Amino acid sequence: MNTLKGRTSMTVSAEKRAYRSIINLIISGQFRPGDFLLETEIAEKLGMSRTPVGKALTMLVSEGFLNKMPKKGCYIPLPTPEDAEQVFFARKAVESQAAASAALHATEKEIQQLKEVLSKDHEALASGSKDTYSSANEEFHLGIAKASHNQYLEKWVRNIFWRSNIYVFYFDSFYKGKEFSVPQKTPMQHATIIKAIADRDPKKAAQLMEEHIQWTYENLLMKY
């Protein structure tokens, strides 16, 4: 029984490593919109077996980060202005309600975990680490979704969050290696949202989250 549990744990760990590593390959620019992510090629790049890589790719498809074409595999969707507008509009609608629900239902432990993410925000800006910034941003947004204690909001937030990251990774100056003009304001915005949640103010939390996502959209995309 213990051996079985150990193998299950190792399998899950391998899937998580493959999942994060695939995202890092995209962040680093090794793949571009329209590129197919072939299971065999990814497995070779990561020095892993095909099984965890295949499961990680399937997860990224289910979350909306990748698309899948029958008989051809997974690929990074091509960004369009129309899709971007719809994606960020949906993010505002869903994540603002997740923040409001978190203000009502988050545990003290969950609020403390959100506060700890802020140090990663500052660390990422200080070090220029794209992976640290991406990971911290993921923990913040998906952490609030989890703290909403609403399984449907959590599922929708995860899906729309990853879809929007196609635009974040390819338009954000931080990820493109230019001046970090967009993320520098992020830690402050994250902090005010967390404070509203900690203050148990759902209306304020929803408003601040909506403003944060709108600000991201305008700074990333409306100038293109």
Topology, please?
Layout: H1 2-27, E1 36-37, H2 39-46, H3 50-62, E2 67-69, E3 73-75, H4 81-105, H5 108-127, H6 130-147, H7 151-171, H8 173-176, H9 186-198, H10 202-220
Antiparallel strand pairs: 1-3, 2-3
Please provide a written account of the structure.
This protein is mainly α and 224 residues long. 75% of the residues lie in helices and 4% in strands. It has 10 helices and 3 strands, in the order αβααββααααααα. It has helices at residues 2-27, 39-46, 50-62, 81-105, 108-127, 130-147, 151-171, 173-176, 186-198, 202-220; strands spanning 36-37, 67-69, 73-75. The chain has a 3-stranded antiparallel sheet with strand order 1-3-2. β2 and β3 (73-75) form a beta hairpin. α1 (2-27) packs across α3 (50-62). It is globular. The model is unreliable at 3-8 (pLDDT under 50).
Task: Summarize the structure in short.
By secondary structure, the protein is mainly α.
- Measured as a percent range, the helix fraction is over 70%
Outline the biggest β-sheet. 3 strands, antiparallel
| Gap from first CA to last CA | 56 Å
Q: Beta fraction of the residues? A: under 5%
Q: If you average the pLDDT, what whole number results?
A: 86
Looking at this protein, list some descriptive labels.
single chain, 224 residues, mainly alpha, three-stranded antiparallel sheet, 10 helices, globular
